[in-house]
């Protein structure tokens, strides 16, 4: 057995482990509310940033959010007849590099995502390669491990929503954020809106983790 064999075995087991996971869109949602709009409430969407009022881009985002609202029992209205006014704001950060170090696989194919002892031996993310030594985790005995480092650019996408009564009184406020590998807001906004209105209105002042299954959808 040689170094190349162990490295190939490690990569193969890792791919199998990752491939077994269903693709999903994960986000954190925090909401605050003093009242909940009645079912069938008529709403109109407006950008919180007034300079975006005439933006064709933001009209498309409003349409995407409106679609999610209608799925949750709201009804679109003209500007002169809403029960509630829903303001929204969208942000996406500049990209940052996210470093992930990984160990290899020993007997049983265990994979560890931290620096330290892999199942079958010591590895160092700054010096990827195969090695061998005494095994830890799940038993003692000889084992083998490979390690390495991956780097990818990630972005933080955020959607903020405010629901106000016609007199301007705010009754609901929420923020959803998700770390993604894309800055394509046309794809991200519908998913952010869907996550934000999942289990609407949500527990007051509590951040909840929302996962949306992406199987069969475009992946941001």
Mean pLDDT: 78
Q: Whole-number radius of gyration?
A: 24 Å
Q: Percent of residues in helical segments?
A: 10-25%
Query: Strand tally, please?
Result: 11
Shape: elongated
List low-pLDDT spans: 3-21, 106-145
Largest beta-sheet characterization: 9 strands, mixed
Q: What is the N-to-C order of secondary-structure elements (H for helix, E for strand)?
A: HEEHEEEEEEEEHE
Q: What would you say about this model in short?
A:
With 220 residues, the chain is of the alpha+beta class. The protein is built from 3 helices and 11 strands; from the N terminus they run αββαββββββββαβ. Helix 2 runs parallel beside helix 3 (185-196).
């Amino acid at each position: 057995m040689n170094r190349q064999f162990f490295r190939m075995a490690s990569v193969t087991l890792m791919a199998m482990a990752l491939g077994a996971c269903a693709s999903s869109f994960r986000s954190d949602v925090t909401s605050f509310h003093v009242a909940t709009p009645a079912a069938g409430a008529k709403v109109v969407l407006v950008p919180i940033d007034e300079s975006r009022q005439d933006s064709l881009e933001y009209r498309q985002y409003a349409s995407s959010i409106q679609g999610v609202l209608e799925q949750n029992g709201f009804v679109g209205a003209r500007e002169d007849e809403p029960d509630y006014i829903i303001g929204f704001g969208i942000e996406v950060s500049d990209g940052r590099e996210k470093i992930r170090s990984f160990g290899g696989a020993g007997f049983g194919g265990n994979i560890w995502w931290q620096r330290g002892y892999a199942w079958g031996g010591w590895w160092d993310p700054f010096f990827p390669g195969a090695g061998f030594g005494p095994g830890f985790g799940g038993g003692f005995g000889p084992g083998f491990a490979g390690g390495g480092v991956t780097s990818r650019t990630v972005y933080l996408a955020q959607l903020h929503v405010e629901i106000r009564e016609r007199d301007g009184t705010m009754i609901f406020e929420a923020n959803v954020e998700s770390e993604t590998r894309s800055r394509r807001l046309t794809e991200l906004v519908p998913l952010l809106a869907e996550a934000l209105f999942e289990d609407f209105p949500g527990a007051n002042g509590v951040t909840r983790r929302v996962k949306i299954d992406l199987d069969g959808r475009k992946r941001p």
